[in-house]
Structure formats: C-alpha cells, structure tokens
C-alpha cells in the first residue's frame, strides 16, 4: 500500500512574504496617510492570523480603552434616532475574530472548534434572536440594516469566548490573560479616579461627553469579584498585597461612578464573600463585618446622597408614589418599562418584536422579552443557567487553587451582573461583556485542563480526536466529570 502523503502546514514566514507584494504596491501608488490607515486597519487581522494568542491579548488591552463612533440613525420604530455606537474595540474584535477564523480554516489541525457546555446554549440564544428579527423584518417593523448591525454588535463578544477556549492551552495562558485583564482594570480605575476633581460622574475612557458611569460600574463590580476571589482562596496567589491595592483602587473608582445599579450589584458579591469566609474563617468574618460597618460611616457624601436620592428627590412630574414615599424619576422610568414590556409582549408573545423592533428599555429582562418573546427569553434563561453551572463546576471540582479562585470570582461577578441587569442592558453592553465572556472561556477551559475527564484532543491523531469528542459529549450534560477522581 502506498503511504499517504503528509500535508505540512505552510510556515508563518511564507504568509509574510506573500503579503509583501501588495504592501509594496500600495506604498508606491497611495499617499502616506492612506498607507498608514490601511496598515493600521489590517495589522490586527494579520497579527491574529499569524498568532491567535497575540490577537487575544490585543483584545484584552483594548477593553474599555477604545474610542467610540456614532453611526447615523439605524434604529427603526421606537428606536428611530438611536444610532449604533461603534467603538474601536468593536472593529478590533471583528478583525481579530476574522483573523482567527482564517487561521483555523487554513490550518488542518485547528479546524475543529472545541465543544464546550456553553456552545449549544449560545447557539440557541443567537438563533432565537435572529429568528425574531427576521420575523420583524418580514412584518415591516425592522429595517434589515438596522437589525443586522444591532445583532452584530450585541453578540460579537461571543467571538471572545470561542477564541479563548480554543487558544488557551495551559494554566500559564490562563494566568497571563487574567494578569492582562487586571492590568487593564488598574489603568481604567486610575483614569476614573483622575476625573474625580472635575466633579462629574466618572466613566471609562472615550465614552463621549456624557459618559457611561453605569457601564464602568458594572465592569468594576465584575472585576472586583475576580480580585476578591484571588485574595480569599488559599494558595491562589503568592503575594496578595498587589491585588488588595488594585481592589482598593477599583473600589474608589466604583464609588465615583455614583451608579446605583452598580452599588446594588455589589451586594450579592459581598454576600458571597461573606458566605465563603464564614465557612472557612468565622472569626475573620466578624472582623470583616466590623470593618464594613466602620467604612460605611466613611462613605463620601456624594455616594450617600446618590443612594438616598432614590427616595429624597424633590417632587417632580413622572415620579411613582408608594404611599407617602416618592421614587425618583429615573427609577420610576425603569419601573414603568417593566409594565410597558408586558403590554408590548402581549402583541407578539412567542417571538417578540425582533431586535430594534420594540421600544428601547434600559433594563435587560424586559428588553429580552419584548424583542425576542418567550422563545428568546427561554433561550436566554438557559444560557444564564449554563453559565452559572459552568462556574460552580469549576469552583467545586478544580484541583488547582488559582483556577478555583477564577471560577469563584466568575460566579460571584455573574450574580452581581444579574442584579445590575435589573436597571441596565448589562448583557448586551460590549464593554462589560468582553471581559465577562473572556473569563467564561477561562473558567470552562480551566476546568478542562484540570480535570482528566474533560475533553482533551490531539488534532493530529484521528483516534484521539474521536475519543475526545466522545468525552466532550459526556461532559456537556452535567458540566462535570464523568470519571470520578
């Protein structure tokens, strides 16, 4: 029998040589500014194609550090006049994502996307949203361009999850990506603190004139959960004081956002830490409670005023009254949006109005209900439950303290974002979802790396590939190991 020919992958330097010709032609025929623009636009695509891991690091450092551009009026119906806000990291994410997909398409050993417990829930949710939007387009409620761009913007961050679980190969990769995320958090926190003397509510860089303090607050709550977990899990890190210093910096920045939704989201995170400490160090919990009570008296006056403003706002039109209690206009509008969501949902209960087909609501759950109906809401619920189970599986079954801490932080941060979403569209805000889905990928892949029953595959061996896929199918239903350790 003739031996089968061995197909060797093309070396990376060959792609560089092939790119030299068009670059030389462009340099000779175009203006210098045009050349620089093209090079800047194509560089992330090339980098992620040649080295997908480098592209992932570029995305991590671009989170919350990219400028935004408002593109016209693509909304329809109740969203007319609501433009699509594109940021540098939106475009960068697409470029890096396409570069990674191109690499996978041309490398035979990387054509199989690793199957994880979240793949199917993600697909169900996206399909539900696309179906609802197509129905809205056919019904004339949604302009096709509007629905396409909003769908693309809402779900582009799923790219980060799939890139993470396929690119990360060992614990060192996890540690490097977590470190990069914490460095980004530190830079953003320092930028926010630098805005405090101006007297405005702080926000992340490049948020425009008005800023988005609520977005920064949700981001900081999630990262604080990660930081706190690395501190309290024994053996997770060798030196805790840098993390404690980073956490203190992030807390100061969080206070300066004056975001009530973010303050409320911090409550389940703190309760989760209290529960963990109570089980492991009961005396430490007592001291922590004493310190928390003492710090409550030291809260800045603007923070206290912002919290009490919910019920102390002077009488204005549009306030909801509960007996003698008045609720401020902003909170009243959010409460009315829940009632409005029920009225809109009744007109299309199964698949909703489609993305951009319904009225804008600054609350995640009624937003999902009106745009995707019961089908989309059910798919969204399955996705949330799968995320929670993935985090709990990593926390309870990971043999490594570092990976266990990341899983714990992800779970607590996830619970905080669930509360944050009561008054915000948290799960479609790219600047919150980029780090969230990065850590979701790290948690799922970390469990696979630390658990011998989790799916492992050798792309160059068809037999091991078959066994790996069998293990993956067994791993999906329970999010846990199929072989007891």
TrEMBL record:
GO terms for cellular component: membrane. One of its GO terms (molecular function) is ligase activity. It comes from the Bacteria. The keyword Transmembrane helix applies. Coiled coil: none annotated. Keywords: Ligase, Membrane, Transmembrane, Transmembrane helix. InterPro entries: WaaL-like (IPR051533). The chain crosses the membrane at residues 12-28, 35-64, 122-142, 148-165, 177-196, 216-237, 244-277, 283-299, 368-388, 408-430. This is O-antigen ligase family protein. It comes from Nitrospira tepida.
